[in-house]
Amino acid sequence: MSQPMKIDFVSDVSCPWCIIGLKALEQALDNIGDEIECSIHFQPFELNPQMGAEGQDLYEHIAQKYGSTRAQSDQAREMIRARGAELGFEFRLDRMARIYNTFDTHRVLHFAATAGRQHELKHALFAAYFTAGDNPGDHAVLLRESTRVGLDPARVREVLESDEFSDEVRRAEQHYQSLGIHAVPAVIINDRHLIEGGQPVEVFERALRHVASQPASDTASG
Questions:
Q1: Beta-bridge partners for 10
Q2: Does 222 reside within a domain?
Q3: Number of structural domains, the chain?
Q4: Which of 24, 51, 115, 134 could join 128 via S-S bond, C-beta 3.0 to 4.6 A?
Q5: What is the CATH number of the domain that holds 117?
Q6: If pLDDT is split at 50, 70 and 90, which confidence band does 222 have?
């Protein structure tokens, strides 16, 4: 019998380590196979909640936020590109020119969860930003990718032209911040076990097998 498991994946689509972590987690689940019956719920986290709609030059942003030089930034980006390639995800560094606000992105992802298309949309938006170089918070991009994964475009347009799901997104963000999550990705298994960062496949697989082996009453945190 498969072991049921709930995973909350706290992340932002403008975070490269989040897609690396997601791909590694998915590969770990594939390796484990039907031993685990898993449901993944994507939870909102904004890396840059104060960012304007027009975004900011990526090099300028990284220099201001982390104090990195252009050479250091390029080195880090190349490492990210290589990690992505190992996991089957294409980072197009030549197209990653700006960082953007993602609040509306999370609102549409919240709606997508109610329609059973959140996982597909999350992947589509990661690719739109990191592979195609699009603004993941742009309404035209959100409408395009939502339609592509099977969401009703008229309903998505309603969400984007209103404040719908704003309160729900903010409450979720505040909840995970209150738990001490201030960096992503953060992977929370069964509301108790935390895995931080874009870990390798084997780290996720080992952690998932460990959690699955624990009695349901075990409250230990990993």
A1: 43, 186
A2: no
A3: 1
A4: 134
A5: 3.40.30.10
A6: very low
